[in-house]
Amino acid sequence: MIGKKEMEVLKKNIGKKVKVCHTFYGSSEITKGILEEVGDFGYIKVDGKSMPFVGYSGFIKKIIRQDGFPLFVSPLCCPDELNLREEIVRDAVLLITFGKKIASRHRKIWKAMKKSVNL
User: Fold this and answer.
1) Which residue of 62, 63, 66, 97 sits 20 to 30 Å from the alpha carbon of 3, by its own alpha carbon?
2) Residue 50 to residues 92, 107, 115, 119: CA-CA distances in angstroms?
3) How much helix, strand and coil, in percent to the nearest 5, is found in the chain?
4) pTM for this model (two decimals)
5) DSSP collapsed to 3 states, 32-79
6) Dist CA 32 CA 97 (whole Å)
7) Rounded to whole angstroms, how far apart are CA atoms 22 and 62?
8) What is d(CA 109, CA 119) in angstroms, rounded to the nearest whole number?
């Protein structure tokens, strides 16, 4: 499980070059650039591109600093085509990755967003 300590390690590396292995709507992608921002348990931003740790569009598998040091490694071995548009799947991935407290917080945010757009 990924915790606050791992988020702090990521934040200490803002401004450094990283390689992010992630998925985007079922396709595996690699993004390289400068780590600009870290939103606790939510997202990172690399060279202006925001990526969710776990979201509707995909998930981050790992973040590696330019020198090869792993800053974040997902505890999951998920197939790239995992359907995170399914709420139950997203919840399970969040639970395994970040634990019950963070998964519950994300669930409340997503429900509020869904309600605000009448979905």
Assistant:
1) 66
2) 22, 20, 23, 24
3) 30, 35, 30
4) 0.81
5) EEEEEEEECCCEEEECCEEEECEECCEEEEEEEECCCCEEEECCCCCC
6) 23
7) 7
8) 14
At 32, which amino acid appears?
K
Quickly state the pLDDT bin for 118 (edges 50, 70, 90): low
Mind listing the pLDDT tens digit for each residue in 74-117? 887 776 777 777 888 888 888 888 888 888 887 787 777 777 77
Cα separation, 96 vs 93, in Å, equals 5
Retrieve residue 26's tokens. Answer: 């079922």
Partners of 27 in the beta sheet? 24
Structure tokens given for 32? 């390289």
Q: 36 and 45 in contact (C-beta within 8 Å)? A: yes
Measured distance between the N- and C-terminal CA atoms of the chain, rounded to whole angstroms: 31
Contacts of 69 (CB under 8 A, 6+ apart): none
3-state secondary structure of 119: coil
